[in-house]
Amino acid sequence: EAARAGDAPACAALLAQGVPADARADPGGYTALVAAVFNGDVATARVLASHPSVGKDATDSRGMTPLMWAAKNGDKEMALLLLYYGAQRWHRFGPNFLSASDLAHQGGFDDLAAMLEHDPEKKSICLMAWENNWAAVQALVQQGVSPNTKHRIRDSQGWHHEQYTPLIAACAAGHADLARRLLTLPGVDADLANRLGQTPLMYSAAVGSEELVLMLLKFGAKRNLVDIHKKRALDWCGGGGGGGGGG
C-alpha cells in the first residue's frame, strides 16, 4: 500500500523493519516494486530496487516483471533504473512468451525496445559501429557505455588487437553518417587513438573518404598527429599507413 501511494519513506521504513519485500497484494498479485513502476514513481522504485531483499524480477499474478511494466508504459527512465539494479531483460511471460522488448515494440516505443534488445554485457559498441548499426550504438550509450570505449573487435579480416574505438570502427568501415552521429555525442574524442597511435583521421585517409576526413577536421581532429611508426594521416592516404592491424 505504501508503494501504491507513492510513499517512498514509508517503504524504506517498512523494509528496515523486515517487512517481506515481495509480499503480493490482491487482486493483481503485484509486488511493491511492480506498483511503483506501474505508477511511474521513480523515487519509490529507486528505494525498493536498491534494497537487497527486493526481487527485481518478482512477477505479478500475470507473470509480468517490473521491467515489463516499464516497457509496456514506455518509461525509459524507469527501465534504466531497473536495469542498473540488476533486472533481467529476457524474462518472458504469457502464451506468446513476450519479453520486455516485445512489449515496448507493441506500444510503439521503438527506442526503448532497442535499448532492451542491446545488452552491454553481450554487445560490443565498437563492433556495432563497424556494422553501421546506429540504433545499437545509441542504445548502448544510453545504458552507460562510453562512446570512447576502446577494445579489440573481430571482422572479416580477423582480430584487431590494436583496439578500435567506435569512431575508429566507423571510419575504418567508411560509415560517414554513423561517424557524424558519434561526433555529436557529448565527450567524444575525435583524436582518440588505438594502441598503435592510429587516429580516426588516419583510418579515414586510408579508406580514401574525403567526406570523413573533412568531417573530422570540422570537429577538431588534428591532422599532424603521428602513430608509432611516425606516420601522419597524410601518409595513410590510399592505405599507405598500414591500417587494420588484424590477425
Automatic annotation (TrEMBL):
Taxonomy of the source species: Eukaryota, Sar, Stramenopiles, Ochrophyta, Raphidophyceae
Name of the featured protein: Uncharacterized protein
InterPro entries, alphabetized: Ankyrin_rpt, Ankyrin_rpt-contain_sf
ANK repeats: 62-88, 196-228
Species assigned in the record: Heterosigma akashiwo (Chromophytic alga)
Keyword vocabulary terms for this entry: ANK repeat, Repeat
SUPFAM superfamilies: Ankyrin repeat
Keyword match tRNA-binding: no
Superkingdom classification of source: Eukaryota
